[in-house]
Amino acid sequence: MRSLLVAACTLALFAGHARADEALSPAQKLARAATIVDTHIDAPTELLKHWNDLGLDSPKVEFDYPRARQGGLDVAFMSIYTSPEQDKDGSAWQVASTQIDAVEAMVGRHPDKFAILRSPQDYARLIDGGRVLLALGMENGAPIGDDLARLKQFHARGVRYITLAHSHSNRIADGSYSLERPWKGVSPFGLEVIAEMNRLGIMVDVSHLSDDATRAALAASRAPVIASHSGLRHFTPDFERNLSDELALAIAKQGGVVQITFGNAFVDPKTAADTTAYFRARPEFDRARTDAAARGETPPSAEEFDKEWERTHPAQQVKIDAVLDQIDYAVKLLGADHVGIGSDFDGVSGALPEGLRSVGDYPNLIAGLQARGHKDEDIRKILGENLLRVWREVEKVAAAGK
User: Which residue in 102, 241, 284, 390 has the most C-beta neighbors within 10 A?
Assistant: First the structure.
C-alpha cells in the first residue's frame, strides 16, 4: 500500500511539473534549458554601497536570486570594480578584496542558492539543486598595482577575467575614454600582466580599452580574449568604448567572444554620443576647478557638474530592439560562435532598455531573438555556450604552458 501511495504521489508530481512546463512560453522553456552566462553584473559594488541580502527578493537592485532563477541565469560574473580614483589613491587592492569578501559572504549565507565557480569543469557539479553560480571578473587591473604576484593571489580567490583598464589609462593599458594615452596601447608591464594571465588561466578582457590597446592585447595573448561587456561601434559612430568591426573580427579570428552589453550608452546612438561628450567635458571641468581653487575661488563641485549635465542631457527611452539589433549584426559579422551577453546590470544606474531591466528578463531577449529567426541552437551558444568554450580554451593554454 505504501509503495502504491509513493508511486501515486510521484506521478502527481511529474504531472504537475508537466502542466507547469506546458504553461511556459518557448522563450521561457529555452531559458530553463539553456546555460545562461552573463559576464558582467555589478552587484559587488552595490553591496559595498548598501548591503542587500541577494539570496532574497531585493527589488532596489537588478540582480538577486529569485529573479535570476526566474530569468534562467546560471552563471553570473560578479564584477570586482575599482575606479581610476581608487587606483590613484592606492585603495584599489583593498576595495577589490572587500568586494570579493562580500561575494563570499553571500555564498556563505546561502550555500543552497549560490556557489563560486572557478572552472567550467565544475559547472555540472555545482549547478545541481538550482544554484546560481558566481564567477569573478575584475573590472580594471588597478588592484594588481605593480606586483605581478597579486595576479596569483586574485586567481586563488576566483578571479577568472581581468579588464586591463577601466575608462582611463592605467599602468597596464590605455583606456577608451581617456584623453591621455601614455602607452599608445599596452605598457611593458601590461605585456607581463597578459603573459601571467595566460599562464594562470585568467581571461584577458579588452572592454574599456582604446583601439590600440585592444590590438596590442590581441597580439600579446596566447589565448583567446573576450570583450566582457561591449557594444558594436557600427551603431554608435565615434564611440571608442564600443568595438569597431575590425577589432570584433580580430577577437573572433583568435577564437574569442564579444559579449554584447545592454546599457543604453552602448546600444543607443544618442546616449553614446552624450557619454563621449561627458568624458571629454569632465577633464576640462576638473582642470578649471583646480585653476579656480588655486586662485582662491570656490569652484563648483563634481556633484554639481554631474547634476547639471544630467539636466542638459536627459535620459533617452530605449527599447529592447536596440540590443537585438546589436546581436543580429554581431552574428552576421562574426558568426554565432563568437557572440555572448554581458548585461552590465547594476552598473549603469538603471539606464537600460525597456524589457531588459533585471536578471529576470533574459526570456524577453530570447523571445526577441526567436522572433527574428535565430535558431535555438545558435541562441544557446549566445546565451552561454560560447563563453564557456573560450574559458575552457584559456584553461587549456594555461595547462599547456605549465
Answer: 390
Residue with cell 558568426: 335
Average pLDDT, the chain: 93
The structure's pTM equals 0.92
Helices in 50-91 by DSSP H: which ranges?
65-71, 84-89
Query: Rounded to whole angstroms, what are the CA distances from 399 to 150, 202, 247, 337?
Result: 20, 12, 27, 23
| Backbone phi and psi for residue 285, each to the nearest 5 degrees, phi listed first | -60, -45
Selection from 387, 388, 396 nearest residue 201 by Cα: 396
Give one DSSP letter per residue of 225-238, joined into a string: -EEEEE-BTTSSTT
**DSSP per residue, 294-328:** HTT--PPPHHHHHHHHHHHSPPPP-BTHHHHHHHH
Q: How confident is residue 18, by pLDDT bands cut at 50, 70 and 90?
A: low
With contact defined as beta carbons under 8 Å apart, do 72 and 34 qualify?
A: yes
365-401 tens-digit pLDDT: 999 999 999 999 999 999 999 999 999 999 999 999 8
